Every structure is written in C-alpha cells, then in structure tokens.
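The methods section describes the discrete structure representation at length, but only in general terms. What matters is that the chain and its backbone geometry are given together, residue for residue. Nothing conveys this as quickly as seeing an actual entry. For illustration, here is how one protein appears when written out as sequence plus structure tokens:
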Amino acid sequence: MIVGIAGGGLQGLEAAYLAGKAGWEVRLLDRRPVVPAQGLAGAFVQGDAADLPTLDRAFAGVDLVLPALEDTPALENLTRWAGPAGMPLAFDLSAYAVSSSKQASNGLFRRLGLSLPRDASESGLPILVKPDGLSGSRGVQVFREEAAWRSWLVEHPAAVGWVAQEYLEGPSFSIEVLGSPDAYRALQVTDLEMDGIHDCKRVRAPSSLAAEHVQEFESLALGLADALKLRGLMDVEVILHEGRLKLLEIDARLPSQTPAAVFWSTGYNLLQALAGLFLYPDGSSPDALIPAAGRQAVVLEHLHAAGNRLEVAGEHVLARRSALRIERGFFGADEAITDYAPGKDDWVATLIVTGSDREEAWRRRGQVVEAIRRRHELAAYADPEPER
C-alpha cells in the first residue's frame, strides 16, 4: 500500500506516523524544502499541491491520496485532479468548507440547537477572539480588561474574518467521527490540555469525562456528521463548563495528536479505517478495525528543550522543525517523535507513554521527564496553563 500525503506539517506528520503503523509506504508532497513529516516518509517531493503537473509527478502510482493541509486552493485543486486521474482522495471538500470557517460552523451549531459559547455582544469579559479560518491556537487572543477589548474593537470595527465569544473555563475534550451517511462511528473521547497560548500540549486517553457526558458527546458528534452528510473523518472539540458540554469547533479532516493517542490506547488506526472508506466504499466499515484487546492508558505530550530549560508546550513547537524521526524507548517512553541528538541543546519531542490505567501512565510519564532533566541537567522546567 502506497499513500500520497499532501502537506508535511502537523497534519502530515500525524498521517505519516499512522501510515507507518499500518506498514504503508509514504510519498510526501510539500512546497517547503524541509518539513517535520519528511523524516517519516519514504519519498519526498517539493512542490505545490495547487499545481496539476506537480500532483501527477508526486503521486504517480500511489493507491490513495490524503490531503493534510489547510490551503483551500490546493484542496480544491486536489479534488479536481483526483476525479479525472481516477485517484481515491480521502477527503470531503464540502464538509471541510463548513468546518474550516468558525462562522459557518457556529451557524450550523445554532441551526441544530446545540450549545456553544455566547457571542461577545451577549456576554461580559473575558472575551476570546479567534480568526474565522484558522485552526488550533493560531491568532487566538483572550481579553480580560475592558480597555484592551475596546482597543481591539477600534482596530477591528467590523471584525471581518474574526469570531468573538465569551471565554469559558473548564476541561476540553475531543472525539473523532468516521464514516459516510447512515454508517457513522464515534471513536474514543480524549482529554486535551492547553499551554499558556491555548495550544494543545497534551492528550490523555481514555478520558476522565463522566460516562453520561461521553454518551452525550458521542450523540452530539454523530448528529453533526449526519447534518454535514460527512464522508470521511471529522474531529469535534468541546469544553465542559459548569457541568455542561459546550461546542468549540469541528474539523472535517485528519486532526493531529488525537489519532495517535487513540491508536496507542485502543489499537484503532484511524488512517487505515479512513482509507478503507475510499478504497472499498461498498465493503468496508468503520468497525472493521476494532481490536479484540482491551484499552490501555496513554499520555501524549510535546516537550521543548532549549539551553537549561525543559518546557511542555503546544504542538506549535513542532511546526517549524526539520525532519523528525521516531525513536523507540526514548528515555523510558514507549516512543517519541523527535529531532533530538546527543549534544544538541535545542530539540523537541512528542512523548508517548502508556500504562495499564491513567495513574500508571501519568507516573511513567513523570519518570521519563525526570530522566530527561537529569541526563541533560535541565534545571528549569515549565508546564504552563492558560491564565485563569
């Protein structure tokens, strides 16, 4: 099986990682000369996915193409190219068009009568502002003081391209939905922990969310997939605020971080299941890869070491790195995705640590972090959280 991945950033890194777990060959395309996913690919082509001849050259002979980028012209071009080329493309452009706009997706939430943060015009401080078309923490700002909020409004009088909502405190959770109309499956709920700039620094599974809320979350996510007539994969994120689940965002694409955590916790490879939907549309089911073995607990988190400091950080610290690689047994972790090398004083690693339950996984994770600090004499340590 040969999979072509368009985009070598964080999504591409996730896709290449899961493809490797499936035993597939990876051909990677990105317009940048060096990208994080490059070290996990068997072949790399530098080029623009918005260029048809580049797609012909990069993906000749592959069995499936997976878009792993958030460039609308490139995604539209990939969709146009795949049909005439007879190439299975594991992507739903129409669902993505809704999920990639926070304004459009919030409109969908309201039409379905779902609970989401109130608009800034209906709430008081603090206010969270985020760009309409960007995912993750990019461009997110939180205003806690009236003067700063008013100043931002003066600078953005129409607030075109922005979404401003009440800022809610509470734990965040994620779930993936996979399938096609009339055959959706909600997968494992994962716990998300954020750094000081609201970027996800850590994923834990299985979730600490109460069973009744898990059931509610699954039902909500399945309803959203049905409303979008999704064919493929979608990620849904919520926050538990004052005992109620509030919808934050949806992304109709392969997300980063959570699929790897689900894989290590359950053995379920989302990329394999997603590929099955497009390669074998009449004979594959999202249930086909449910493992017989029971779950284990996992902690997946990102570390950045620089000088004498070790910091747990959001996944943004991986985005500008050169080719990363997989290292098993990294300082006692099950596995790491890293650019670490002996003697290097600035490196990153995504740690993956498992245990029989959440407590054991967390204990082992602490041992790994301590081993790294001792080995490299990293006196300073930080695990930042959003301001409260």
Summary: DSSP finds eleven helices and 19 strands in the chain.
